[in-house]
Amino acid sequence: MNKSLILNAIKKEKNIKTNKDFANFLGIKATTLSMWYKRNSFDIELVFKKCEDINPEWLLTGEGSMLKQDVLLEKSSKNLIPLYDDVATIGGTEIVADVQGVSETTEYIDAGDWFKGVTAAIRHYGNSMQEYPNGCILALRKITNIRGIVWGHNYVIETNDTRVTKRMQTCPDDDDCIMAYSTNTETYPDGRLVHEPFKIYKEDIQQIFLVIGRVVKEYSSDPVYTIQNN
Fold first, then answer.
1. How many CB atoms neighbour CB 220 within 10 A?
2. pLDDT per residue over 9-43, tens digit each?
């Protein structure tokens, strides 16, 4: 990597004409700047402190966009889904999920042309929903009104006590509830369902998210695969 080219690019971006003025801008002696050019090296920490608008990755490698604002523009043009990796949903009722507020995004998933309209992504744990492997990432779209639920589809429902992923249906004997079903129909020896359906009272619902699809990483060295619901 040619560090001299990086220095010249910064000088051009700052509209500095001479190396003497460039040295003054950086707060170093002209002889120090001359030595940087000669040795094809520079003090990265010093340069970054003087040029905080510069993309640090570009400063280190010379690759990518030079300015931070250009990096942000590139990200905004992509379909980036915020992943809240400190929030989890469960498929059953055997454990309680974390329902604390999320302060910031853990990372972003570049979904390309997939999952349009998705507002968030979180981890899913448990085995009651056969289509969602334990530890996979669910791509979610927030539903603002319970009337927007399409019965027979999978949703993440957050209540006062827990957060679960279930297939939602109407409750035939109680208009104040909805029914949450598992797709894993495993039974005990006596025929009873391991993952029985249960009621969720509408007044207890805090948030509702439609599950748009899932992201699964098959192996640690393999790429990430995205699978979208129909």
1. 5
2. 999 999 999 999 999 999 999 999 999 999 999 99
